[in-house]
Design brief:
The protein is of the alpha+beta class and about 160 residues long. About 25% of the residues lie in helices and about 30% in strands. Strand 3 and strand 4 form a beta hairpin.
Length: about 160
């Protein structure tokens, strides 16, 4: 933001709030059964949008999750809150060289469906689940555009 770096340098503080994101990441590699279990919990300000992914030795990215921003920068960032943004528990089968085999198992979905066995889907189908989410989903764009269109949509106020 204009003037913020100069203000920070001269006064030691700025009107521009910092972005805060923290994460817990647990990774378990089973070399015998050849899979990688990943549990991620990411929290932060809830602004701006957040995405998390892992890239394997074969350069294949796999999304851990996404979060669409809440509120506006002036209010959301000033709170410096630990808002839950992403939670995931996935299994990635791996080849001998450690590269991903091409499928993802979702442990949270398995538990939610109360199933005994984990179901797998292709990495591309898994990733498209996250890349197809609108970056403005459920967000009050009227506040950012400084107009009233969409401002009183009750869904965006929740």
């Amino acid at each position: 933001m204009n003037g913020s770096p100069e203000m920070q340098e001269r006064l030691g503080f700025s009107y521009e709030p910092t972005l805060n994101v923290s994460y817990e990441l647990l990774i378990d590699i089973d070399r015998i059964k050849r899979h990688l279990d990943i549990v991620a919990y990411i929290k932060g300000d809830g602004f701006p949008n957040c995405e998390a992914f892992i890239v394997g030795p074969g350069q294949t990215p796999v999304f851990l999750g996404v979060h669409v921003r809440k509120g506006m920068p002036a209010t959301t960032l000033a709170l410096n809150a630990g808002y839950p943004m992403i939670a995931c528990a996935i299994r990635l089968p791996i080849n001998r060289d450690g590269s991903f085999k091409g499928v993802v198992g979702d442990e949270l979905a398995r538990k939610k469906k109360n199933k005994r066995e984990m179901e797998y889907q292709s990495i591309s189908d898994w990733n498209s689940r996250f890349t197809s989410i609108s970056p403005n989903s459920g967000h009050c764009m009227g506040l950012e555009r400084s107009d009233l269109k969409g401002l009183f949509n009750m869904e965006c106020l929740l």
